[in-house]
Amino acid sequence: MLELTMAAVTAADAGATAGMQMADAASEPGAVLRVGRDKSLCRLATPDDWLFVSRVHLEFRCGPDTTWHLTWLRGSQPTPSSEVRLGPTPVPYGGSVALPRGGSGEIVIQDRSGPRSVNVGFYLEDLQG
Fold first, then answer.
1. Dihedral angle sign, alpha carbons of residues 50, 113, 83, 117
2. Are 56 and 33 in contact (CB under 8 A)?
3. Residue 101 backbone dihedrals phi, psi, to 5 degrees
4. Which of 20, 22, 67, 70 has the greatest count of CB atoms below 10 A from its CB?
5. Which distant-in-sequence residues (6+ apart) come within 8 Å of 95 by Cβ?
């Protein structure tokens, strides 16, 4: 099971948990959770006017071996207006990284033009052990 919590943070409300959203999915091959502005496609949706976040920005997908992968989907622009980090490690634009089994952490989408971010915490149960 992958559990996600998301908070949209501005400089004015850093540290606040207002507006926190949660989503989860069983660790079954093909399961998908998405983060972005498009509420029809994303289980975790950011404010519509946060244009540094694509309509569908991040995708969490469970692979055939039940390993979850985080993908930063390419948007309509060749250069993104945000940065994405898994912990301290940058995630490449259009790239994918595996989440640690039985681990937890945070993914941050940081606006390059201002003090806004989307913070997505994750917890992944290790069902293999």
1. negative
2. no
3. -65, 135
4. 70
5. 71, 72
Contact call for residues 125 and 27 (beta carbons, < 8 A): yes
Beta strands in the chain (DSSP E): 2-10, 21-25, 32-36, 44-45, 58-62, 68-72, 82-86, 89-90, 96-98, 104-111, 116-124
Q: Which residue has the tokens 């969490």?
A: 60
What pTM does this model have? 0.90
**Average confidence (pLDDT) over 27-41:** 96
DSSP letter (8 states) at residue 129? -
80 contact partners, CB below 8 Å, separation of at least 6: 52, 93, 112
Task: Please provide the average confidence, as pLDDT, over all residues in the chain.
Answer: 90
CB distance 6 to 120 below 8 Å: yes
**Residue type (1 letter), 101:** R
pLDDT greater than 80 at residue 71 = yes
d(CA 41, CA 105): 24
What pLDDT is recorded for position 35?
97
pLDDT for residue 44 is more than 90: yes
